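Worked example 4.2. Below are the chains of a multi-component assembly; read each line carefully before continuing.
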Amino acid sequence: MRQSRLFTKTRREAPADETAKNAQFLIRGGYVHKEMAGVYSYLPLGLSVIKKIEGIIREEMNAIGGTEMKTSILQNKEVWEKTNRWDDGVVDNWFKTKLKNGTDVGLSWTNEEAYSNILKQYINSYKDLPIYPYDFKEIFRNEARSKSGIMRGREFYWKALYSFSKNEAEHNVFYEKAKVAYQNIFERVGIGNSTYITLSSGGTFSKSSHEFQTLTEAGEDTIYVDEQQRIAINKEVYTDEAIESLGLKKDELIEKKAVEVGNIFNLGTKFSEPFDLKYKNEKGEFESVFMGCYGIGLGRLMGTIVEVFSDDKGIVWPESVAPFKFSLVEIPSEKPEVKEMSEKIYKKLGENNVLYDDRDARAGEKFADADLLGMPYQIIVSEKNVASGKLEFKNRKTGEVKMISESEIDNLLK
Amino acid sequence: MRQSRLFTKTRREAPADETAKNAQFLIRGGYVHKEMAGVYSYLPLGLSVIKKIEGIIREEMNAIGGTEMKTSILQNKEVWEKTNRWDDGVVDNWFKTKLKNGTDVGLSWTNEEAYSNILKQYINSYKDLPIYPYDFKEIFRNEARSKSGIMRGREFYWKALYSFSKNEAEHNVFYEKAKVAYQNIFERVGIGNSTYITLSSGGTFSKSSHEFQTLTEAGEDTIYVDEQQRIAINKEVYTDEAIESLGLKKDELIEKKAVEVGNIFNLGTKFSEPFDLKYKNEKGEFESVFMGCYGIGLGRLMGTIVEVFSDDKGIVWPESVAPFKFSLVEIPSEKPEVKEMSEKIYKKLGENNVLYDDRDARAGEKFADADLLGMPYQIIVSEKNVASGKLEFKNRKTGEVKMISESEIDNLLK
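Applying the procedure described above to all two chains together yields the following structure tokens:
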């Protein structure tokens, strides 16, 4: 894409009320627009990152048998009353509104009720199970405070898969597959090394659950990490019993700040029972469906990637989620060869792979913008480079610069 | 996809309160789930149709210079107060809710304010224009009644593009391009023949606007159609003056019921002025940006396609938006050759192209389901067919059946 056609522009300063590093960089880079605390619009570059993350998650969910659907945001009070989760005394982060006729409706803050209610229509027999539907959708949580940028939104884009199994044994097989799929996702988006599967509280659902926690000072959680075994325990369940159950040793665990980028839950029959979600087994007897839940917030994941990889100059995107693999920086010159070479490279690499800074701007401004925007590689075309027959090729992460010939450009996409 | 793995099932009856034909068929086919009047969840087959429609719209919007972004659903009161459209006395279909601290927020019912507010940050100079950002998002309108199935939702999935031009002349050039893009979209989704560009009211925005109206008895609008010239006039602006302005003759116009599947508006400076959205022209003077708006409701479009093409047996999808091009109907048999042949064809055509009815069910039920679900072509594999070396190939729309040999299957995807 030509940067001259990208309507967003970089800014020197983020809004004064924005204290989170991820949002500061993303706003300065024109990736997102802050509508209010915890509510962001995604501008073209930001949406591009979200779509790449979404594509990776979708592939991994489909690979373990997931079937995509899309549930509504407006929620029916009667459905939620079945589990007693309509009550504001039980769930304190609802957004609610009213239809014209006075009927109360809520905005989706999670999907257990909607899924149980829909699936009840379709699950009758053991032949109908197991099934693994999932959703990408906007989720709304009325957080009292929201100061972590796109890492804790009042409105956020979310993937949730629910597993519907015949029994705990069948559930456990899928749960282990989902763990691997989640590890694949965090690996593929570039944060595999700093992400730990973490034993954590099961809340009101079950004895425990698994979170995927990524180490960062911006995280709101504290975890105890075994770096060798690559597992961790959340502070909220950090007991001698928990340590022992995982075969860990207390003196080998290190306290770290981390952010929860995903979680997986054993829901058991907590939701199937109130919805009377049963199937007939091979003996003709009715049994409650055994459920699991597997969530990832895409905005939080994007914010975490920014927190983990940014430096003082700006964002550093992993290739898999970068809006473009390359920034092509044309240093304005009166010699037509500079623009000619830039156009030639732009054409070679393709508009989907390169953000071509074709603007009439100072070199310093262009370098600063390329660093702030954070594409993984920068190709610099200047008078001097063109004359020498070699172009500068800079790795945004390491800062390493090497000189490459025009013919080597062809190999960059391989 | 194997139908045995599709968790949805067909139903004989739609809910009693569902009076719209589109929703009756879509619910019976397991395409959508009704959450409440005007609010539907999209099940896997339904989401597949929406994604195909979305892909076509995205291609056409990108082809005329559109840039995709995604604005938030939660809306800031202060932004809307600038145009006086926060007031429930002015806009009567808001859904509103509150943050924990008591701050009022609204749910997006249109995007003029959000776009003007965001673009104000990025438009400074004539060099920044024109630009054409657009959004796919959920839109919320608190309709007093909602009885047209997915054709008039309280929550619906929507595409809106806004054009930001230097002046009316530049706007007009794009407006004509957008008209063509819209015609392409309706052509590509299969309703080109029954869709008329229609002069209609500009509401409070401008003297007139253009709607794209598709003929169907299920439509809520009345239009007067010139079938030769393929243009129409909405009843709300059906005056002698309007007829004359289009060079039409009153006695050649036919009254029809229709549904508005798209609309395009000249917004002029109605929104840029309250937002002080100005640019500096080449002389260094400030001028207000000239805006246009181009909307399509994807659910409404999907519902319209169902209304236009369904027959008494069910839905008839045009190829471009069908979840699958083929239904492969295996008639259960004790002879293993039937399943063998079915599996072979399934593999040949590929899981993304064919819905393979591999269920253990009666032939009559399978035929009825294939007709209800509405894939464009049905391939029937029975004992008799396999023995004769020829398979039945049925066109869902025309009902025409021909016998094809196994080798002809390979040509079906070309």
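Take a moment to check your reading of the output against the notes. The radius of gyration of chain B is 24 Å. Chain B has two domains: 3-309, 326-413.
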